[in-house]
Each structure stands twice: as C-alpha cells, then as structure tokens.
Amino acid sequence: MNKESVAWMSLLFAGLLEIIWATTMKLSEGFTVLTPTLWTIALLIVSFGLLAKAFRVLPAGTGYAVFTGIGAVGTVIIGAFLFDEALSGWKLLLVTTLIIGIIGLKQVTGGEKV
C-alpha cells in the first residue's frame, strides 16, 4: 500500500472515530457523565492523531473537509437513529450533497503538492 492510500485510510478511520466521539460527547451531557466524557477524550485524541498522520501526505484543506464531512454525515445519521433527531427531506438532500462532495474531493485529490 502506498503512502497516499495509507493517508486516505487514516483519514477514513479518523472521520469514523469523529462520529463515535461526537456521539459519546452527546451522551456525556455536557461532560457531566464520566464514562462518555472519558470515551470522548480518548477517541478525540486517536481521531486527531490519525488526521495528523493523513495531513503528512494529503492537502490540509482536502483532508480537513473530508474529515469533517464524514463526521457530519455520520453524526446526522446517528442522531436520527439513536436520538430521534429530525431527518427532513432537506436534511437528507444536504447530507447527500456532503457525501457527493466528499467523494468528489477524493477523486480530484491525487498528486497535488502539499
């Protein structure tokens, strides 16, 4: 596996961990519940470590946009299913737009100077 592939995998896992730490942050009720608070902190550290690893190879703007996009899309989905947050037609359309943007950024990023 080449450096760029490893960077993209690191970025993917960083984004997935962002979904989990955002969820544990919600469960921490403003950092007033100890166990979810500790999970949030631990997952944040690992997530940002993976993001930093990806930044060694990928352009920062692309990497950060993909990272936050994965986190945003996943957190909206988790919020709808775990916390009964509204998932309107507009929200679905906008989340779909985010997904298209993430895929697009992956497709056009390659060989760019960092």
UniProtKB/TrEMBL annotation:
Gene3D superfamilies: 1.10.3730.20. It comes from the Bacteria. Pfam families: Multi_Drug_Res. It is a multi-pass membrane protein. Its main location: membrane. Belongs to the drug/metabolite transporter (DMT) superfamily. Small multidrug resistance (SMR) (TC 2.A.7.1) family. This is Multidrug efflux SMR transporter. The lineage of its organism: Bacteria, Bacillati, Bacillota, Bacilli, Bacillales.
